[in-house]
Amino acid sequence: MAKVSVYNMEGKQVGDMELNDNIFGVDVNEHLMHMSVIGQLANKRQGTQSAKTRSEVRGGGAKPWRQKGTGRARQGSIRAPHWTGGGVVFAPKPRDYSFKLNKKEKRAALKSALTTKVNDNKFIVLEELKFGEIKTKKMSAVLNNLNVNKALVVIADNDKNVVLSARNISGIKTASTSTINVYDILKYDTFIVTKDAVATMQEVYA
């Protein structure tokens, strides 16, 4: 089992913790991580773009001039794509870009992303992360103590004080163990997680 250090909010090491290799020590599958990220970005797309083809543009019903005898190239409609004001060739239409990975693929991709953070020494475990009030300055102090600038902070439950204290800090995002995803894990340089959250993850994903 991989062993990581546990830190307090002052940035001092207070112990060690063993991680479950079934979650944090798997064989990294880059293809599944890539598919998971692409899928999440695709699912965010609205797919509402639309343009008119030559059959949908208003006008152009009459032939501009006769077929022969004018000395000009033959034309059938002033709404053909090469005319100004004409329709668009292969115009984009509203569509659904989303696609799904099955549960096993999602789980494997998530474990691969977590293992990557552990292997890169970008996995920081906090003994606890609690504030008595909503205070951005306190959250900034914790991050400075850990020498972190861009991080995903994962907590076991939706602690309002922690979430709101981190909300206005650039490069920091909070998440609970039930909302973490491959895209966010890979996007942020450091993965900060509380000891309770690690226990929950090992219970749920093992």
Key terms:
single chain, 206 residues, alpha/beta, Ribosomal Protein L4, Chain: A, 2 domains, six-stranded mixed beta sheet, 6 strands
Fraction in helix: 25-40%
Task: Please identify the structural class as seen in this structure.
Answer: alpha/beta
Shape: elongated
Instruction: Please give the alpha-carbon distance between the first and last residues.
Output: 13 Å
Described by strand count, sense and barrel closure, the largest sheet is: 6 strands, mixed
- The CATH architecture category of the largest domain equals 3-Layer(aba) Sandwich
Could you tell me the CATH topology label of the largest domain: Ribosomal Protein L4, Chain: A
CATH evolutionary superfamily of the largest domain:
Ribosomal protein L4/L1
Strand order of the largest sheet: 2-1-3-6-4-5
Number of helices: 7
Arithmetic mean pLDDT: 94
Order of helices and strands: EEHHHEHEHEHEH
Poorly predicted regions: none
Instruction: Tell me the radius of gyration.
Output: 27 Å
% residues in beta strands = 15-25%
Q: How many structural domains in the coordinates? A: 2
CATH top level class name of the largest domain: Alpha Beta
Beta strands, count: 6
Task: Summarize the structure in words.
This is Large ribosomal subunit protein uL4. Part of the 50S ribosomal subunit. Belongs to the universal ribosomal protein uL4 family. 34% of the residues lie in helices and 16% in strands. By secondary structure, the protein is of the alpha/beta class. The chain has two domains: 2-45 and 100-205, Ribosomal protein L4/L1 (Ribosomal Protein L4, Chain: A), CATH 3.40.1370.10; 47-96, no CATH class. Strand 1 (2-7) and strand 2 form a beta hairpin. The protein is elongated and about 95 Å long. The two termini are 13 Å apart. The mean pLDDT is 94.
